[in-house]
């Protein structure tokens, strides 16, 4: 018999939730991760007493009461509400697009005035069938919002002019005719008190974890140790790229410690001009109402992805989705390998969705 029931490749949220649930059911698990720490992309590094979101800002939000109660059973959450502000040249705007934004743009004060303003800009453009992202956005929100708050940011994110991006990337652009700067519409939102590591540590309590271990460096050896493999890494790599490589967008994070207790007064400030090379500046302490004497900020630069860089956002165009489908067909035939998580499913997932999908997988596997 094998040493473990499950070898879990990847100590991110998917692997951690699966490990917790399997352990609850009396199963023996080993988690391996190629990084020097557990937690996957929600991992935070402590700098000057501040939890620094090393792989990008993470704000937990969900409408699902069950998932909210599930995460709160491991760690308490604070009342952080995401209310980003956007800088465009020397102007500052509230996000998401709401009455505060419309007042800042046009000095309009009533929903009726704001709606009329947006509609008149849309009517003037007279776009019948949007041929690209620019036309799509213009036909939804008009010229001012598009030029100041969408165009530059989107072009930096994708590394291409908005006129060369497909219209389908933007399906809707939520506009809100109330004075409400809460970015998310979900019922529940917050940050774990003490940081995300508290959540992933609580999930994996009592589970053996080996760090700095790449599954592919010694694949047969690892596979031989467990009855079943739970794989949360890149699915194309699992199958030796036989149908080709799946593409991603990547990000470069530039972290800085500053000798001030408050740099920008908000956790998230977007920079919307094309000319500013980064898209956002994150000031981490504000996620937890920090009162440390110093502060840590992170500038987020979108970049092209190559095999050495972190894969952040899947590019779900037809080419990549077709390639993924081929891998998925192979995965569906496996009886001793379970695939899950953002890399194995080649899909952008928020944290609550990853937890939901891990719990669903657990239900299928253990039939309870
Ligand atoms: P994750 O990537 O966390 O874990 C996979 C693990 O597998 C990694 O630790 C990796 O090292 C390991 N691994 C891979 N290959 C391996 C191998 N060969 N051998 C060993 N180990 C291997 N969500 C949200 O709800 N609110 C938010 O604000 C944000 N913000 C955000 C910002 C940015 C920039 C991104 C890219 C994503 C978000 N998210 C988010 C989404 C969130 O990060 C995501 O839902 C989870 O981290 C996904 O967890 P997984 O376990 O699927 O992957």
Architecture blueprint of SSEs:
Layout: E1 4-9, H1 13-24, E2 29-32, E3 44-47, E4 50-53, E5 60-62, H2 65-72, E6 85-88, E7 91-94, H3 99-106, H4 111-125, H5 133-141, H6 143-149, H7 151-158, E8 188-190, H8 196-203, E9 208-210, H9 219-223, E10 226-231, H10 235-238, E11 248-258, E12 268-271, E13 280-283, E14 295-304, E15 313-314, H11 318-332, E16 337-339, H12 351-366
Parallel strand pairs: 1-2, 1-10, 2-9, 6-12, 10-16
Antiparallel strand pairs: 3-4, 5-8, 6-7, 11-14, 11-15, 12-13, 13-14
Helix pairs in contact: 1-12, 4-5, 5-6
Bound molecules: dihydroflavine-adenine dinucleotide.
InterPro entries: UDP-GALP_mutase (IPR004379), UDP-GalPyranose_mutase_C (IPR015899)
Organism: Mucilaginibacter robiniae
Enzyme class: isomerase
CATH superfamily of the largest domain: NAD(P)-binding Rossmann-like Domain
Q: What is the makeup of the main sheet? A: 7 strands, mixed
- Which architecture of the largest domain would the CATH scheme give at its second level? 3-Layer(aba) Sandwich
* Helix percentage: 25-40%
Strand content: 15-25%
Count of β-strands: 16
SS element count, helices? 12
Order of helices and strands: EHEEEEHEEHHHHHEHEHEHEEEEEHEH
Shape: globular
* CATH class type of the largest domain: Alpha Beta
Structural class: alpha/beta
Low-confidence stretches are: none
Bound molecules: dihydroflavine-adenine dinucleotide
Q: State mean pLDDT (0 to 100 scale).
A: 97
**Arrangement of strands in the largest sheet:** 7-6-12-13-14-11-15
Keywords: FAD, Flavoprotein, Isomerase
GO molecular function, one term: UDP-galactopyranose mutase activity
Pfam family, one: NAD_binding_8
Protein name: UDP-galactopyranose mutase
């Amino acid at each position: 018999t094998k040493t473990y029931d499950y070898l879990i490749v990847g100590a991110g949220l998917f692997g951690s939730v699966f490990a917790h649930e399997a352990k609850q059911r009396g199963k023996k698990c080993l988690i391996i991760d190629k990084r020097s720490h557990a937690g996957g992309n929600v991992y935070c590094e402590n700098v000057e007493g501040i939890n620094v979101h090393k792989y990008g800002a993470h704000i937990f939000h969900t409408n699902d009461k069950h998932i909210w109660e599930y995460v709160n059973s491991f760690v308490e959450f604070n009342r952080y509400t995401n209310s980003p502000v956007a800088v465009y040249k020397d102007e500052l705007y509230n996000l998401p697009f709401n009455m505060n934004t419309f007042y800042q743009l046009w000095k309009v004060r009533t929903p009726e005035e704001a709606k009329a303003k947006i509609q008149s800009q849309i009517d003037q453009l007279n776009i019948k069938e949007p041929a690209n992202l620019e036309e799509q956005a213009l036909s939804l929100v008009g010229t001012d919002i598009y030029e100041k708050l969408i165009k530059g940011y989107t072009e930096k994110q994708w590394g291409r002019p908005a006129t060369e991006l497909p219209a389908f990337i933007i399906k809707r652009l939520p506009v809100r005719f109330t004075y409400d700067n809460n970015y998310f519409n979900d019922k529940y939102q917050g940050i774990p008190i003490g940081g995300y590591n508290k959540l992933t540590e609580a999930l994996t309590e009592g589970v053996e974890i080996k760090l700095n271990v790449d599954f592919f460096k010694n694949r047969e050896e690892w596979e031989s140790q467990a009855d079943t493999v739970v794989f949360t890494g890149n699915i194309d790599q699992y199958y030796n790229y036989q149908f080709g490589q799946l593409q991603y967008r990547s990000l470069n994070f530039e972290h800085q410690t500053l000798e001030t207790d408050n740099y920008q007064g908000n956790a998230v400030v977007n920079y919307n001009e094309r000319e500013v090379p980064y898209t956002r500046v994150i000031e981490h302490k504000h996620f937890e109402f920090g009162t440390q004497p110093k502060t840590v900020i992170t500038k987020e630069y979108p970049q092209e992805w190559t095999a050495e860089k972190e894969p952040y956002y899947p590019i779900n165009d037809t080419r990549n989705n077709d390639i993924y489908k081929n891998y998925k067909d192979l995965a569906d035939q496996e009886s001793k390998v379970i695939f899950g998580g953002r890399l194995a499913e080649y899909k952008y997932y928020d944290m609550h969705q990853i937890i939901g999908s891990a719990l669903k997988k657990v239900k299928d596997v253990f039939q309870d």
